[in-house]
Amino acid sequence: MKTKAAWFAAVWLLPLPLVAQTPAVPTMDHEPHHHLALHNDFVKVFNVEVPLGDSIILHSHDQGTVAVAIGEQLVTVGIPGKPDVHQKNADAQVRLQRSGYVHSTHVDGDTPYHTVAVELMRPQTNFHNVCAEILPGQPLNCVDVPARISSAYTSQALLESRETFVQLVRVLPHQSVKLADFPSSPGAPEVIVSLDAGSISANGAKRPEKALQPGDFVWIDGAADHDSVYQNRGEKEARFLEIIFPLVP
C-alpha cells in the first residue's frame, strides 16, 4: 500500500506536460484565419485572409482540399519534422492538399495572403493531373481532354479524381458562357471560384445577377441551376475556377 501511494505521489510531482495528453493539432475549422463560408454534403469552403507578417498556425486537413491562390503569394510553409519551405504561389495557382496534411504558413513579401480553400467532404479516389501539373512530379493525362476553345471562352482541365473535376475557364471580354454548355458533367453540382471581376445569373431570373470579385464563390446546385450564366462585361478576360462533382453511380 505504501508503494502504491508513493507511485501516485511521484506522478503528481512530474511536470504537467509529462502527464497531460498532448493536445491535438487543430483542423481548418479551428484555425483562426480560416473562415467557414459554406458547408454542405460536398464541400466546406473557407475564406482564408492573413495580414502581412502574420501566420496561419499549425493545423491539419482531415479531408482533401483544393486551395486557390487569390493574388500572388510569398510564404514560408512549416511542416513538422521538415525544414521550412519558402515558396511563391502565383495568382490563381491551384494546389491539392491531401487528407492528413499538417502545416503552418507565414506570410512574407509585401502583400497580404488570400486563399479560397475548398475542403472535399467525400473520400477521393485516384486524384491525378489532367492538362496542368497540379500534383508535382506526376504525369499529365491530357490526351483525351483537350482544351475547349470557342468565340466566347477557353477552358483547361487541371485536376481530376473519380469524384471531383477541376477546370479553369477564361471568358473573353464582353462575352458570356452558360455553365450547362460544359460537357464535363452536365447537371452536376459545383463550386465556382472567381479569379477576376465578373457576374453570374440565371436565365430564368430565378435569382438576381450577382457581381463577383476575385475570391468570391458561388455554389451551383446542379440541375436546379442548370441555366446559370457567367458574364464578363470587362475589357480583359475574366477567369473562374470550376470544382465540379460528377454524378457518379
Q: What labels describe this entry?
A:
249 residues; mainly beta; Jelly Rolls; 2 domains; 7-stranded antiparallel beta sheet; 5-stranded antiparallel beta sheet; globular; disordered N terminus
Q: What order do the helices and strands come in, and which of them pair?
A:
Blueprint lengths: L1 H12 L2 H4 L14 E6 L3 E8 L4 E6 L4 E5 L3 E6 L6 E5 L4 E4 L4 E6 L5 E8 L7 E2 L18 E2 L3 E8 L4 E7 L3 E4 L11 E5 L3 E5 L7 E3 L4 E4 L7 E5 L5 E7 L5
Antiparallel strand pairs: 1-2, 2-9, 3-8, 4-7, 4-9, 5-6, 5-8, 10-12, 11-12, 12-13, 13-20, 14-19, 15-18, 15-20, 16-17, 16-19
Kindly report the name of the CATH homologous superfamily of the largest domain: Jelly Rolls
SS class? mainly beta
CATH class of the largest domain: Mainly Beta
Radius of gyration: 22 Å
What is the quaternary state of this protein?
single chain
Number of strands: 20
Q: Please name the CATH architecture of the largest domain.
A: Sandwich
Specify the number of helices: 2
Helix content: under 10%
The gross shape turns out to be globular
Question: What this model shows, in words?
Answer:
The protein is mostly beta strands and 249 residues long. It has two domains: 93 residues, Jelly Rolls; 117 residues, Sandwich (Jelly Rolls), CATH 2.60.120.10. The chain contains two helices and 20 strands. Strands 10, 11, 12, 13, 15, 18 and 20 form a seven-stranded antiparallel β-sheet that branches. Strand 11 and strand 12 form a beta hairpin. The radius of gyration is 22 Å and the shape is globular. The chain starts with a helix and ends in a 5-residue tail after the last strand.
